[in-house]
Every structure is written in C-alpha cells, then in structure tokens.
Amino acid sequence: MITFLIFFLTYAVVAIGRAPGLRVDRTGAAIIGAILMIVTGAIGFDEAVKAVDFRTLALLFGMMVLVAHLRLAGGFAALVRVVCTQFTNPAALLVALVVTTGLLSALFVNDTICIVFTPIVLDIAETRRHRPIPYLLALATASNIGSVATMTGNPQNMLIGEMSGLSFRAFAAALTPVATTSSTTSSTTSPAPSASATVPVQSPSAATGAGTQVALPAYFVGASSGTGDRFGLYREFVRTAVPAGATPAQRAKAAIEVAMNAQPFTNDKLYIQPWSGTSVQDVSVDKLITITLSGSGSSSFTKEQTRLAVQELVWTAQAAIGKGTIPVKFVVADGSATLFGTYPTAQTYNRPAKALQYQDLAPIWITSPAREHVFTSGASVVATGESCAFEATTQWQLKKSGAAIRSGVTTASSVCPLRGTWQVKLGALAPGDYTFRMFEVSAQDGQGLVADASTPFTVK
Description:
Elements: H1 2-16, H2 26-39, H3 45-51, H4 54-72, H5 75-85, H6 90-107, H7 110-128, H8 132-147, H9 155-164, H10 168-186, E1 199-202, E2 212-223, E3 231-242, H11 248-259, E4 280-285, E5 289-293, H12 303-321, E6 328-332, E7 338-339, E8 343-344, E9 348-349, E10 364-368, E11 373-375, E12 380-387, E13 393-400, E14 403-411, E15 420-428, E16 432-441, E17 449-459
Parallel strand pairs: 1-3, 5-6, 11-17
Antiparallel strand pairs: 2-3, 4-5, 6-9, 7-8, 10-12, 12-15, 13-14, 13-16, 16-17
C-alpha cells in the first residue's frame, strides 16, 4: 500500500509539473520518490543500484553534451532558419518543419530539438502573421515520431537498445519505416495564416481610412542600455489599418508610418523620434523598394542615431513586404540629396549580413510577453526573445509591483556575433502587475550594463 502511494504521488507531481505549495519540480519528485522507496524497504539499496543502467546514462550524457555544444554554436538555429526561409507557403513550411524536426529528432534527443526549435518557430510564425499553434503541434508530433527511428532519439530508445543488445543499425532498420510513415501522415494538415496580435497598439496615422486591421512589423531606434548611451533597433508588431487587399507597397507604407512615430511607445520604451516632422509620401516596389519622404529628417541626433534611423526604415519596409532583402532607395520630396545631411539618396541601402546584424539590432529583444499583455491567472508564463551576448549568457529578473521577486541566468542558442533565441519559464504567477527584465553585465568589470530590456505585463 505504501509503495503504491509513493508511486501515485510521485507520478502525480511528474504529471502536474510541480508539487502544489512546494518548490519541487519533476526531477525533485522523482529523486524524493526513489529515496522513499529505499527508506520504506520497497526495494533494497543494492537492488536499486543494480536497477540503474549506467551505460544508458553515459550514452544520454554524451548526447546531451554534443547537443548542448551544437545549440550554443547556433547550429540548430541556423538550420531551422535556413529551412524556414526557403518556404513562404504555410503548407510547404509545415511539411518542411515536420521533415526537419523528424530527422534531427532521430539523430539527437528529441526533447532538446523541441526546446531549441520552439522560440524560433514562434518568431517565424509571428513575423509571417501565421497562427503558431499548427506549427507547434507539428513540431511536437514530428519530434516524437522522428525520435522513434533510432536508438539516440530519446532515453527510452537508449534503454531498450542497451537492454536488448540491438545494434544501432538493426534498431534503425526496424523502426525507421514506422517513423517515416507516421511522419508523412502527420504533415497532412495545413495551417491557415492569421494576423498576429503581439502588440495591440494602433498607429493613429495609419488608422485613418477604411480597410482591415493587420499586425505589421515596425522597427524603432531605442536605447539598448539603462544608461541610454547605446542604441539599436527594436521590433514591434503593431495592429494597423491597411486597405482591404493591400498591395506589398501599401503594407510597407503603413508599416513605415508606424516606425516613424514612436510616440505611442515612449511611456515605457526608450525610443527616440529622429523622423519627427517627416512623413512618408509614397512607397513603390519593383527591383528596388523606393521610399519617398517629405523631408530629410531631424538634425538634432547623433551620427549613430541617424544611421539607425535610416536602417529602421530599411528593416521595416523589407519586413512588411516579406520578400527578402530587396535594396531600398530613398527619395526626398524637397529635392534633398542626403538624409540627415549625411546619407546620399543616390545610393541604395540594405540590411547587413547576418554575422554583422549586431551593428543594427539591439543586443536584447523580449518578444514575449508582449508589452502590457494580460495573462489569465493560473496560466503558465514563458518569456522568450533574442540576444547577441558574450558567451550567449544574459541575466533576467522578474519584478512584481516594482519589487524583484525572482532572478536567474539564461543561455541563448547562438553566441555573438550571431543572434540566438532564449526562453525563461516563469510558470503560473499570482495576479498582479509584473515587469520582466533581461540584461547583460559587462564581462570587463562585472558591473556595468552592456544591454538592458524590459516589458510590463499583467496577470488577472
């Protein structure tokens, strides 16, 4: 009876994820359950030691080390981004995701593939305004199915392989056909694209006209450190009015109008407004994206701030159009030959290569929770984002009503100069007003802040 009770309580905590009222997670519950089994005499100590398959543990440990290094090097993130950028059709993207996830899960531990891929898939779905749920379901399903194919796909397979004495080749030969058939079946449902509601803020200038509301990506120049001495580009998704059946050029014009007006965000974001007094008059798309502006920009900003101001329009236009890095050309209605008196309108502008994007983008982005998002009490809160940090390491802090209640360290999927994705599981939070903060401390003195970002949200 006692043995059954220990098993039932342990399994219940594993199923729930955490012991109610205690700081005991699944791992802690399993360890406590094992200790109680020995203490109560349900199993002897020697029997318990013999029950541990150390060969399986060694194989699992080795795979985890290998996967950890690939993740830190950005290998997984780079692969999934390459695959996803090749497919713009939602159904084709779903199939590509299923195939890629299944193959990698067959070679590596499937849990890690899910952890690494989830924030990247969410980011891509958000950027393309697709519903993320079909992609996440495909990721989870394909990962489980793909892991069936080989001995290294998941810990259960490792244990079965070791105890059965099967070779890696024999195991794969028997189960790869099963995984392949199941994976093909799992990719038959096509997701429907849908507008993202990441930031429910509406641009006043973009909303003056009949049309439909869509979430458009807009980039803003903002301080990337608490001291305000460093700047970079931040991306927001803003619900904006566009004409029904809007063309790519109309979408780009609406997004640029939002990007040129940072005023709605200045209450809790250190965004600047270098385009104050300037408006976008026209956008055309052909072999170039041509942006016609009413003026050449304000003269009261530093050279770096104005360089980023030009780049924010480049990034915004390209993201809104969604057809890759089409070169951008500027035209000033009053005939000015330069922007901000420095940047020639005769030349074209573009995003830098991925290895150099740290020159434009702020070192830390918090993509979720969205600013001022409201969570239902009891819902699990997960913070996600991107960063370009030394050794991929940043620190985080959770505040409730202005007081710090929790903190920790997280590691991104890539090391700077490449941007990596990160995730922090905050769990279910009590009702209240919260602020999630992510920051990087200087590696030189361990005190100064290299980058700092935060976002407010509420739990009701």
